[in-house]
Known about the structure:
Tetracycline Repressor, domain 2, 2 domains, 12 helices
Amino acid sequence: MNSSVSHIDINTATKVKAYYELLKPRLSFLVVFSSGFGYALANQSSINWINFFFFLVAGFLVSGSSVTINQVIEQKYDAIMKRTKNRPLPSSRITETEAIWFSLLTGIAGLGLMLVAANFLATALSLLSLILYAFVYTPLKRVGSIAVFVGAIPGALPPLIGWAAASGLLTYEAMIIFGIQFIWQFPHFWAIAWVSDEDYKKAGFKLLPGGGAKDLNTAINIMVYTLFLLPLGLLPTYFGLTGLTSGVVATVCGTLFLAQTFSLMKDTSNQKARRIMFGSFIYLPIVQITFLIDKL
Length: 296
């Protein structure tokens, strides 16, 4: 009897873990961080912590729904790539039907909670982000690098959603923080695509620009978009959204980030691309946290 109960407990724990993995928690927590950043930056008075908490939970659920749909659509491609073959669907820990129902439940719950905790504008933007990521960006990954442009939109929407949730408006300040995260997506995406190129080719994913090769042309594209981050990082200071300190920090971080792209242009290796990938992960949170501190 005890052995039977133990077996059921193990199966339940395995299933719960698989559902949690479907949410891609690391990615979804990054979405939550960015949306929380936008919310705090836009807030002009004391934060209602209860609303803020439920807003973050709503964002996590909507993000989880969109990445679950992504995994349903790409399950046969995930099965042939080394980095994704152990995901819940290709490893058969979750069935396609279970994943579809899970995406519906998390999506509806997230959007409903967003409407209650925030407002209609934030909810509409969240729905737009889900649709663009799951149903436009995902199939475009096998078409060409246009997928990166489309994917950069939902990727940059979280701070805009946060701003809308706190203020109910979309102002030029909101578009500035959207623009920074939008442009950041390009070196970030392309560095990942460079490092994972062999795996991506197995699935027919075409994310690198130009001819899709790991060459000087792609390295120049990465450099150009990283270069745009320098003036963009100064705009919050210029328009009085934050102080001088954040402008200095954004410039220093942007310059260090840019230096890595010049290294890639000299040596078009996976090692240099991996440094840009990790550099992109460091750049965005440091700059966003500095903006928040500087506002205070």
